[in-house]
Amino acid sequence: MAGMKSLVKDTAIYGVSSILGRFLNYLLVPLYTSVLPAASGGYGVVSNVYAYTALILVLLTFGMETGFFRFANKSDEQPEKVYANSLLFVGGLSLLFVTVCMISLGPISSLLEYPDHPDYVGMMIVVVALDAFQCIPFAYLRYRKRPVKFAAIKLFNIVGNILLNLFFLLLCPWLYVRCPDAVSWFYDPDYLVGYIFVSNLIMSGVQMFFFIPELRGFSYRADRALMKRMVSYSFPILIFGVVGILNQTIDKMIYPFLFDDRQEGLVQLGIYSAASKVALIMAVFTQAFRYAYEPFVFGKNKEGDNRMMYASAMKYFFIFSLLAFLAVMGYMDLLKYMVARDYWEGLSVVAIVMGAEIFKGIYFNLSFWYKLTDETQWGAYFSLIGCAVILALNVWLVPRFGYVASAWASVAGYGIITLLSFLIGQKKYPVDYPLKDMAAYLILAAVLFVLSEKVAIANVPLRLAFHTLLILVFVAYIVRKDLPLRAIPFINRFIK
């Protein structure tokens, strides 16, 4: 029982810190969009560069986080030796990456079409190398059951990054106008995008100091046999990771190359990326569900066949995904202020992006059939198919229809692999999902969404009140059909 309580506590700390961290990062969106006009394409540059760094981070970590956990928990391995070899491998790979890239910085910057700003590329090369290396100490903290330190470092990095962005993007411009001598020695008012990367670089460097205790006291001697076994184990995980991150970032990576006018591509990418951030609630909900669901499934699997539980979990995920969708779309009059006014033209994609997020969540639910049956190769097949669909549709449609096509490409990609996973999963590991009940919720949500869009109410407070009423109709249906008030913790205290 004590072990279960500890697990719940640790999971809560990891989950809350990650979700809170993600939310705090989203608070930078209003700042970026306010200081980087849509027409400048500045936010498009930020989105494009960070898309590349996300992919490179997966490549440099090489699946070693999972490899470390796997080998550190083997009875015939020494955890300290496994940790030291993980550090040596990822650290060596990251150092090699930085060295090669810095020697070839000019050509790489030109290839990425940033010939005038090799500094952007150079800074993010160092950042991604540091972040990759730090993934292993973070994994070690989890192994040693140090969730508080793990969460504290994560949140410190995020808060520090936010404060530095506020300093460079708001305070320095203000001081430059009123007291230029105070900041002119280091501040360039035309370098706004660059300061976003500077802030990230500073915090990644500072973060290293927190890992000094996790880097001392180990024997850093490469064990070739151990490292070979770890690399062999981690390589398939690397492939999974690469394909997975490409599904999320491939559109942002290739976007500037899809337009004859690169600047126009960056402008559209900036608008699309900023508008997509408004779907924050859905992304946070999906992430929170994943944190809770994965240990739940594998824990239940130890108890025996619990397919009815999996079916119920899918149903409730779907229900509350639709509720989150209605809430975001219903309160768009408020949520649109997350981005600056000149980005509002992109808000038409929010509903589409949220649709893709729902498919992504459903696919995650379905994915457990191949994990429980140890047929994980299916995950690779589905991911590759999804990536191919998203890439092909972006290349084909974005030059003609712009960022709306990117949003629909994500829906198509995740929709297809969701359908494939369901059809094949029902043959390999059949689960009696309550499809009729889920269809009823979908139809009701669709009707309510159409009403919210088609009923024109000019007065904003009245429009918000009407949308609230529609959301309450959906909530009332949930309470009546599947979640009576007596079953809800805390509320049930007031129900006799």
Describe the protein in words:
This protein has 496 residues and is mostly helical. It folds into two domains: 15-258, no CATH class; 279-496. The protein contains 22 helices and no strands. Helix 4 packs antiparallel against helix 5, helix 5 (79-103) packs antiparallel against helix 7 (118-143) and helix 7 (118-143) runs parallel beside helix 10. The longest helix has 32 residues, at 147-178. The protein is globular and about 65 Å long.
Question: What does the secondary structure layout of this molecule look like, with pairings?
Answer:
Layout: H1 2-26, H2 28-35, H3 42-61, H4 64-72, H5 79-103, H6 105-111, H7 118-143, H8 147-178, H9 180-183, H10 192-208, H11 212-215, H12 224-254, H13 262-276, H14 280-303, H15 307-330, H16 332-335, H17 350-366, H18 368-372, H19 377-401, H20 403-428, H21 435-454, H22 460-481
